[in-house]
Amino acid sequence: MKQHTATIGILVMWVALTATVVSQAMSQEGQASGGKITTGAGPAAKAPSKSIRKPPKASGRNSSKATTTNTILTTQSPAAVETIDGKWWTTGNGFGDSEVVFTQNGSQVSGVIRYADGRTGMVTGTMVGKKLQHTWSNSGGEGGTGWLELSWNNFLGGPWHNQRVRDGSWTLNRIEGKWCFGGSRNRIRTVTHNARGQVLVVTEDGSQDEGRLEGPYFFLDSDFGSIQGTMNFRNNRVDWSTGFFWTWCGR
């Protein structure tokens, strides 16, 4: 009986010892795997985050901006050159009554001056828009530089100067051409003149009238004497002392 009891005790001790060894082996296996052994599903593993590099912000006085702007280049088209070729009647302070016949090639202008007193001259210049920058000289040894600006359709006016004259001025009137009596194109007067200011007017029925230019005034001979016309540049017309008028109809 004692032997049987001892055998059972040895068996119990062996079972307990075996259980302890197994328990220690399992604990060591869990530690070797780098974590705890748990039952059931664990929390989902997070995906590794990607790092995004941002360009460094520029700083300091010599830094350049990272952003660029689109620059739209705008250019202004040059003003159209006005046409002044043809014959003009000129008057002005210190310049003298004369006719000027301009010849124009694009912006380049040349002209022949014929004075009422018989002198002759030349004028050359460049048109920029409505303005003519020019120099002139004549057979009397005079000359100067200045500008003329086309105002409306009938008038140029501007200053000039030289060694003798500091504030000269002159105006040019386009008298030679077609004028409409009372503004009617059915009653056109064709006007021509020479360097001495003598005027010939041909009416729509072919009859002729004579007149003269004196400075800025237009005198027309009639059966009742001489009637005076005043140039109205703003309206491109001649207002006559008798109450009627002409309007400019072109060359």
Describe this structure in words.
The strands form two sheets. Strands 1-2-3-4-5-6-7-8 form an eight-stranded antiparallel barrel. The chain starts with a helix and ends with a strand. A hairpin with a 4-residue loop joins strand 3 (108-115) and strand 4 (120-128). The chain is mainly β. Among the domains are: 86-173, Calycin beta-barrel core domain (Lipocalin), CATH 2.40.128; 177-250. It has one helix at 2-32, and strands spanning 86-91, 98-105, 108-115, 120-128, 131-138, 143-151, 155-161, 168-173, 177-181, 188-193, 198-202, 208-214, 217-222, 225-232, 237-240, 245-250. The model is unreliable at 1-8, 14-23, 25-48 and 63-69 (pLDDT under 50).
Notable characteristics:
about 250 residues, mainly beta, Lipocalin, 8-stranded antiparallel beta barrel, 1 helix, about 10% helix, globular
Helix content: 10-25%
Order of helices and strands: HEEEEEEEEEEEEEEEE
**CATH fold-level label of the domain at 86-173:** Lipocalin
Cα(first) to Cα(last) distance is 158 Å
In terms of DSSP E residues, the strand content is: 35-45%
Number of helices: 1
Structural class given helices, strands, pairing?
Answer: mainly beta
Principal-axis shape: globular
Q: How many β strands by DSSP?
A: 16
